[in-house]
Amino acid sequence: MTSRERVRRAFGRGEGLPDRVPLQFDLCRSLIEEFGQRLSIKPEYALSYYEDLTYRISANAIRTALGSDCIVVGGTVSRGFVPTPIGDGASLNEFGMWMKPSTLYVDVIKCPLADVSSIEGLEAWRFPDAYAPGRFDAARNDIARFGQDFFVIGDVELSLFELAWHLVGMEKYLMDFAMEEPWIEKLNDQVEEWTTGLALQLVALGVDAIWLGEDLGTQTSMLISPDMWRERFKPRYARLIRRLKRANPDLLVAFHSDGAVAPLIEDFIELGVDIYNPVQPNVPGSDPQELQDKYGGRMAFFGGIDQQELLPKGDASAIRAEVARRASIMGSKGAYLMAPAHIIQADVSPETVKLFIDAVLGSAGT
């Protein structure tokens, strides 16, 4: 059974169950470099249009050599674009965001629309072109190289809400959003058009799944009310998902949101989302048995392995036990792609990463 067939069976795109729970994971740069050295594989980086997504769509050769059943591809900067250095380690990206690497992430330290207050002001700023030459060169190459044997996920996270507020700044965006400032909806239109363009190009390249989403929750609650999300964003996602599934009726759609977003899972199902990710542990509404009991058969799951405590601090027996528990609960009838709930960061040792991978690869029959 190829990796691609294994994942497709898990998600109901083939007859029978997979031979084991399939696996996906992402690695931060230091882990990519470490495993590249161990495997004698030179890391290949695909610079995303939004820097924090770079490691999501990079190093597919290393990922698959370690045991992933999936590759992840996505849009990069346009051909020939180089971030402009602006001092103190920061640079200017295609959106005009000031980006500066921190210990774990690349932070937006200045937003291009921080001072915009009108449609006229918004129109003075130019949104990048989703169809710019070169944006999918890396994706096309990786699909040609790995797509026959591995399940291909096309990543367009920061789909609507999160990209919009990164352009404005969260406080200003939420205030103007709540006040129903007209320019905010114009910006949301532009973000929807951008994401739709990226996603349709990935569908045309032949991805098996599109990975939509953004972080809508905190550790305890949602960032905006469920009713506000339903009123202002759900129709946008409905349009987007309809267009994607018209382009390829066999396409699977995954929706990512960190945090306590269980109040929206029924909405995701109604929208035609097939897969819920990352099933973040340790937040309300994410108990695996409860999710399986309430949504099993209507929604598949992707993620679930604790990135905050278990992988950085757990011992070998605890990690193996959690892999077995998740596999038995969420993977007992297929419909589960096991993965950490986040990109594996530098606070997880390479030895622990390998232990986790080996535990999943040995999960047949659990």
In short:
By secondary structure, the protein is α/β, with parallel strands linked by helices. It has 15 helices and eleven strands. The chain has one domain: TIM Barrel, CATH 3.20.20.
What is the secondary structure topology, with strand pairs?
Blueprint lengths: L2 H8 L18 H11 L20 H7 L3 E5 L9 E4 L2 E3 L5 E4 L4 E5 L8 H5 L13 H10 L4 E5 L5 H8 L1 H9 L3 H24 L3 E5 L12 H7 L1 H14 L4 E5 L8 H7 L3 E3 L10 H8 L4 E6 L4 H4 L2 H15 L5 E5 L9 H12 L5
Helix pairs in contact: 2-3, 6-7, 8-10, 14-15
- In CATH, what is the class? Alpha Beta
CATH architecture classification name: Alpha-Beta Barrel
Radius of gyration: 20 Å
Q: Give the domain tally.
A: 1
Keywords:
single chain; 366 residues; TIM Barrel; four-stranded antiparallel beta sheet; 15 helices
Tell me what the structure shows.
With 366 residues, this protein is α/β, with parallel strands linked by helices. The protein has a single domain (3-82, 128-361), classed as TIM Barrel, CATH 3.20.20. It is 41% helix and 14% strand. The strands form two sheets. A seven-stranded parallel beta sheet has the order 1-6-7-8-9-10-11. β4 (98-101) and β5 (106-110) form a beta hairpin. α2 (29-39) packs across α3 and α6 (161-168) packs across α7 (170-178). The longest helix is centred in the middle third of the chain and has 24 residues, at 182-205. The model has no long low-confidence stretch (mean pLDDT 96).
